[in-house]
TrEMBL record:
TM ranges: 33-55, 70-89, 98-116, 141-159, 166-183, 189-207
UniProt keyword S-adenosyl-L-methionine, yes or no: no
Protein name as it appears in the record: DUF6629 family protein
Record's keyword terms, sorted: Membrane, Transmembrane, Transmembrane helix
Pfam families: DUF6629
Cleavable signal peptide: none
Length: 220
């Protein structure tokens, strides 16, 4: 989340509990990764709560650094892989599965790009107003391309999916991203993850839908 430590901890607890419910809702093995998304979101929000507390206190620098890296690894490394992979695993339509393969490859590229930077360069979280900004000394290069690949992996893959009701989650994440860009440009990493976490309830709703996709269209 982004607005306060209390809000981050509250959201983390609620979303994690929702994640437990969604994981229980998964009926098939190929749904398990998708069902785990809210739980991962919850842990991510809890880690930012720790960042808030340590920044306010001015103590526990090591804990602050660890929590900030957990949050950023989830935002920049885990999500661009987990989202398209979850869509790929659930997809049965051959043509869509091929597209998702390409999006997954793009997501892996993004994850490798950010993992390299998070390992070798420093990140310094700072409170500005009611938000946290994660300042870094990452080297430039390919930033625009990586950003496009990130959006393709985390948003376009949702629109490609043929899973019933998935378009609702895709639309929610897209609208959330647009709002975050225009209203909170400088704190996009933090704010967008908060908006996207709202989709946890939608994920439970998606998993509750009867599966009407044709099995005959499955890729071999």
């Amino acid at each position: 989340m982004c607005f306060s430590a209390g809000a981050s901890f509250a959201a983390g607890a609620v979303i994690s509990a929702t994640g437990v419910a969604t994981m229980r809702k998964a009926r098939r093995p190929d749904q398990r990764l998708f069902a785990a998304i809210p739980f991962i979101f919850g842990l991510q929000q809890l880690s930012e709560g720790v960042v808030w507390v340590t920044l306010r206190s001015g103590e526990q620098a090591a804990l602050q650094d660890a929590a900030a890296h957990i949050y950023l690894w989830a935002a920049l490394v885990i999500w661009p892989v987990v989202v398209p992979l979850a869509m790929f695993l659930m997809e049965r339509v051959r043509e869509r599965k091929l597209i998702l393969t390409g999006l997954l490859a793009g997501g892996v590229t993004v994850a490798a790009y950010y993992a390299y930077r998070l390992i070798l360069f420093s990140v310094t979280p700072q409170i500005e107003g009611t938000h946290i900004i994660y300042r870094n000394d990452f080297p430039g290069g390919f930033g625009d391309i990586i950003f496009v690949l990130y959006l393709a992996a985390t948003i376009l893959s949702l629109f490609i999916s043929s899973v019933s009701r998935m378009w609702v989650l895709a639309g929610l994440v897209l609208v959330s991203f647009i709002i975050a860009v225009f209203m909170f440009t400088q704190v996009l990493t933090s704010v967008w993850c908060f908006f996207a976490a709202i989709g946890s309830v939608v994920i439970y709703w998606i998993l509750s839908a009867p599966d009407k996709r044709p099995v005959t269209a499955a890729a071999g």
